């Protein structure tokens, strides 16, 4: 087993325009032990908002602690929030949850309480060894708390039908909502923001935002981030998008946002063999500080422009060991959790932790895989989002593999044979400007190797807390391509330098975002990239910043944890175990 990337405390620092907030996303204990007898298991994990020393850890069955779940084990976390405890699990297939409550919060602060879904009791009891290596949700975090809040909201508050497949589907469909809510939980847990409404805990905060927001799967734009801003007050408008960027690139949190965990099958999700890695690395201006001292604040760095990294021969063997012919890629695969060391053509090295899933076979001539997660530049300590395709060297993508009938997506009425896409924008420029936009609709006319994309009417999103507080998110006011008289039709083609056919590139993109609260605008110019099967488009500005356009759930993002996936367009096998 590899050593966890987060075996030491993480500290983040935002640029001044992003409210100069310093984030402290902390460590997890690794390891895990054998079972404690029939129906029993030893669990090792951590509570990781910021380090939660001495946190009260409670394992429950049937429901989270706040919903009346049955207590089956308790422990006290150590100084880094890590815990180990043995529990006897109930018989049958019963959902099991880990709950954490912080101690020593300042007077008047919202109680910091987090929760996480671990899986079904019968499956967990059969594992024998359970750690954060093969079950990232043993980290009780803002992301897992937000995911359960959204699950409860979309299932009538009941956990009766909760299982690995439904949990994975919730993450995929409501990924952007979960991201927004987890940022709100993080903001309150780390005392950057104080709710303007009455909440009993951060778990309650997550549920109130989920209940008050329009969520992603509806025909209307998501309002989760705007609702979170309203609940926390307008002064948090800059903090929340900054936290979203940090979460998307964090090696602990990012894997929690993609799929569930192949813990129920406990099998490798990739057919052993040799593949070409085609990756997109997009750095953020957020530092990963490996110093263990307290009280210090890291200075933010300047992110490198997004880059395409290609390694022609990456081998994954039957044990999950990852190697490459040139020695520039190495790591391990456990279930669908991939840990990598990646060195780019310029010699920069990244430590990455990501989920891997199968692309539908109608998108590729041979079975290929999609990788999504986060990591850190080991030189600059900047966090970076990581998206990649892992495909046989002779595989050919089919970018029109999911052309579909006319549909309405985020206000975009698309013609027959087009993709309908909807985006939220979350990003930090090199100068620290933060923006988030919902309801950007687009229609894509695909060919086998290219896209032609037209934009629909831009829709601003606003949310409220139900108590008279509201907030309106910024709006994309222009998105064009080219110099001189730019075109409103965006042309995408397969990345050519280096050659990466599973990555599309749109050069010379011009993006203007207007803050509806202040009527000020921010301009970005640069190249845009999209890795097949992933959830985000990255716009890399000429000034060095990278902007993330998060896709809402659609036919392109329908991937599976199994090693082979015969895809469809209805998402019925999404998160398939």
Question: How would you characterize this protein structure?
Answer:
The chain is mainly beta. The chain is built from eight helices and 30 strands. Among the domains are: 112 residues, Immunoglobulin-like (Sandwich); 119 residues, Lipocalin, CATH 2.40.128; 150 residues, no CATH class. The strands form seven sheets. An eight-stranded antiparallel barrel has the order 10-11-12-13-14-15-16-17. It has an eight-stranded antiparallel beta barrel with strand order 20-21-22-26-27-28-29-30. The protein has a four-stranded antiparallel sheet with strand order 5-4-7-8. β18 and β19 form a beta hairpin. The two termini are 23 Å apart. The N terminus and C terminus are likely disordered.
The major β-sheet equals: 8 strands, antiparallel, barrel
What share of residues is helical? 10-25%
The chain-level structural class is mainly beta
Got a strand count? 30
Number of helices: 8
Distance between the amino and carboxyl termini: 23 Å
Radius of gyration over C-alpha positions, nearest whole angstrom: 22 Å
Question: How much strand content do the residues show?
Answer: 35-45%
Mean pLDDT: 78
Shape call: globular
Which strand order spans the largest sheet, edge to edge or round the barrel?
Answer: 10-11-12-13-14-15-16-17
Can you tell me the residue ranges where pLDDT is under 50 for at least 5 consecutive residues? 1-38, 290-299, 427-437, 568-577
């Amino acid at each position: 087993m590899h050593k966890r990337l987060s075996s030491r405390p993480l500290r983040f620092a935002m640029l001044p325009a992003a409210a100069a907030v310093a984030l402290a996303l902390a460590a997890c204990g690794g390891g895990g032990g054998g079972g404690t007898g029939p129906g029993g298991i030893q669990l090792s994990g951590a509570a990781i908002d910021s380090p939660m020393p001495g946190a009260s850890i409670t394992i429950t069955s049937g429901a989270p602690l706040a919903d009346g779940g049955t207590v089956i084990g308790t422990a006290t976390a150590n100084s880094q929030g890590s815990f180990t405890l043995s529990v006897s699990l109930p018989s049958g297939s019963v959902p099991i949850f880990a709950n954490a409550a912080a101690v020593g919060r300042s007077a008047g602060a919202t109680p910091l309480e987090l929760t996480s879904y671990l899986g079904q009791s019968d499956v967990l009891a059969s594992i024998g060894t359970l750690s954060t290596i093969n079950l990232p949700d043993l980290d009780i975090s803002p992301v897992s708390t937000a995911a359960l809040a959204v699950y409860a909201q979309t299932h009538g508050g009941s956990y009766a039908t909760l299982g690995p497949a439904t949990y994975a589907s919730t993450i995929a469909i409501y990924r952007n909502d979960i991201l927004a809510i987890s940022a709100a939980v993080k903001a309150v847990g780390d005392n950057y923001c104080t709710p303007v409404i009455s909440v009993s805990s951060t778990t309650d905060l997550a549920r109130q935002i989920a209940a008050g927001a329009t969520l992603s799967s509806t025909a209307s734009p998501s309002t989760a981030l705007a609702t979170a801003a309203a609940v926390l007050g307008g002064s948090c408008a800059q903090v929340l998008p900054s936290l979203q960027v940090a979460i998307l690139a964090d090696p602990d949190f990012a894997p929690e946002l993609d799929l569930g965990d192949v813990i129920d099958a406990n099998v490798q999700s990739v057919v052993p063999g040799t593949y070409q890695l085609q990756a997109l690395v997009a750095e953020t201006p957020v530092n990963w500080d490996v110093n263990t001292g307290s009280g210090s604040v890291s200075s933010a760095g300047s992110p490198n422009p997004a880059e395409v990294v290609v390694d022609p021969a990456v081998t994954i063997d039957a044990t999950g060991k990852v190697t490459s012919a040139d020695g520039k890629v190495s790591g391990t695969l456990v279930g669908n959790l991939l840990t990598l060391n990646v060195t780019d053509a310029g010699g920069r090295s990244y430590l990455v932790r990501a989920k891997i899933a199968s692309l539908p076979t109608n998108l590729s001539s041979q079975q290929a895989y999609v990788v999504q997660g986060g990591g850190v530049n080991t030189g600059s300590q900047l966090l970076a989002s990581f998206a990649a395709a892992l495909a046989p060297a002779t595989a050919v993508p089919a970018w029109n593999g999911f052309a579909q009938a006319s549909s309405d997506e985020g206000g975009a009425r698309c013609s027959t044979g087009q993709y309908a896409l909807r985006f939220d924008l979350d990003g930090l420029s090199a100068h620290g400007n933060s923006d988030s936009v919902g309801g950007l609709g687009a229609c894509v006319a695909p060919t086998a190797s290219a896209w032609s994309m037209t934009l629909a009417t831009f829709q601003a999103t606003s949310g409220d807390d139900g108590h008279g507080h509201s907030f309106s998110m910024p709006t994309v006011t222009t998105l064009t391509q080219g110099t001189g008289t730019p075109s409103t039709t965006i042309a995408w083609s397969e990345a050519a330098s280096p050659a990466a056919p599973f990555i599309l590139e749109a050069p010379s993109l011009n993006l203007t975002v207007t803050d509806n609260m202040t009527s000020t605008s921010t301009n970005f110019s640069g190249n845009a990239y999209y890795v097949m099967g992933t959830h985000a488009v990255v716009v890399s500005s000429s000034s060095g910043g990278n902007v993330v356009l998060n896709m809402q759930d659609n036919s392109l993002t329908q991937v599976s944890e199994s090693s082979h996936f015969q895809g469809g367009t209805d998402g019925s096998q999404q998160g398939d175990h």
